[in-house]
Structure formats: C-alpha cells, structure tokens
C-alpha cells in the first residue's frame, strides 16, 4: 500500500491508494525578505547539509502563499492568530536552508466550487461579503461568530490557504504532472480551519482547509480511504461535523 502525506499546521492527512525545480523559489524569497529577514537561531544546518536535492528519492513539496498574511486584525489587540506565526516558520525554513531542499509549489486560490465541496453556499457568500463591506459592518459581523475577526483581505487569504492545500494534494496524487510530483507535502497556511463547520466560521477558522482537501482528493483521484490526524489544544469539531456520517474518512484527535 502506498501512502502520501500532507502536513499543515494542525493536521496530517494520509492518503492510501524527483523533479528539480526552483522556478518559484525567487518569488518566495523576494516576497518574504522584507517581512521575515534572516534568522540565525534554531537552524537545522546538519539536516540541510545532509539533504541533497539531486539525490532525493522522496521529494517534499512546500505550498506557501504570502497572501495568507494579509489576514490580520484591523484594530491590533495582540491576537495570537496573527501573520507573525507564518513569518516565523517561513524564516526558519529559509534560515535553515531547508527551503532549498523542497519543491515550492505555485500559488493559487480555491474556487467557489472547491469551497462548496464542504461548505454550503450561504456560508461561502457570507465570507465573500467581508471583503465588500466597510470596517464597521465587519465588526458587527464578528459579533455573530464565536472567536472570529475579519479584515478586507480575510476572504482572499482564506482562498489562498485552501488553494495551497489543494496544490499539495495535486503534487502528491497527480502522476501526470511533469513537474512538482512529490511524496509528501507541507502547507504553510493560515487562517486555520478545523473549527469551521460546513455552515459556520468559528474559532479563528473561516474555511475548513483540510476537510476540503480530503474531499477534493476523494472526488478527483478516487481515493477510498483518508486518515486525518488533528492535533491542537481544542477538538477539531468542524472536521468531525463534515465527515460525521462518512465511514471512509477516519479522524484521530490529539488534544
């Protein structure tokens, strides 16, 4: 049995059932250089030095879209779900040299049809509306949800987050790809997703990134079994709700 793995912040997807490319590396580095700078501590020099791209048997794909960092509080309260989370990880990947050992995937936004693999249309439309209304209306909308904030770019950032995971799925499962086929993948994304239910944003989560990715993999590639390992302080209620009556998606919670 072959296994393919997608890692994200709080999730691990396991699907059961060597390409050299740096075309996106310069874009990644240029767009993040001013934001992240260089990091000297917490490097992984030994791992990076011993990992030679030309000799890799198992290629790791990396999906990262800087638009995810546009999602931020419009009135800064020091919220811990902030762009600095991904700044720090991107900096570590670059500073350790591990970025150059990965295949960096192209960025894309998820389509409405892809969002609706899990979410109902009223929820998608309501989240789209956050980009069209003024700040005062967004504050009123926030009050209707549990632990949420929105800015004018939150919807776009969320589309980029979902799109990044779907790129990872394609990199793992699309054997016809001439470039970018991988054995495992890491999606560096925010906002997170495991509290978003099919009809509701909650717990800092707008769309359920991993649930959408799992359904996308099953529909597009005919997978019969998917295992989702969810680790977080809180229960991933949104993933549970999405697949509660589905026997071919298993969910393991590490809380």
UniProtKB/TrEMBL annotation:
GO cellular component, one term: histone deacetylase complex
UniProt keywords, alphabetically: Chromatin regulator, Hydrolase, Nucleus, Repressor, Transcription, Transcription regulation
Alphabetical list of InterPro entries matching this protein: HDACs, His_deacetylse_dom, His_deacetylse_dom_sf, Ureohydrolase_dom_sf
GO molecular function: histone deacetylase activity, hydrolytic mechanism
rRNA-binding as UniProt keyword: no
Pfam families the UniProt entry points to: Hist_deacetyl
Residues covered by the Histone deacetylase domain: 79-245
Catalytic activity, reaction form: N(6)-acetyl-L-lysyl-[histone] + H2O = L-lysyl-[histone] + acetate
Similarity-based family: Belongs to the histone deacetylase family. HD type 2 subfamily.
Protein known as: histone deacetylase
Signal peptide: none
Chief location of this protein within or outside the cell: nucleus
Single GO biological process annotation from the record: epigenetic regulation of gene expression
EC number: 3.5.1.98
Localization (cell): Nucleus
SUPFAM superfamilies in the cross-refs: Arginase/deacetylase
Source domain of life: Eukaryota
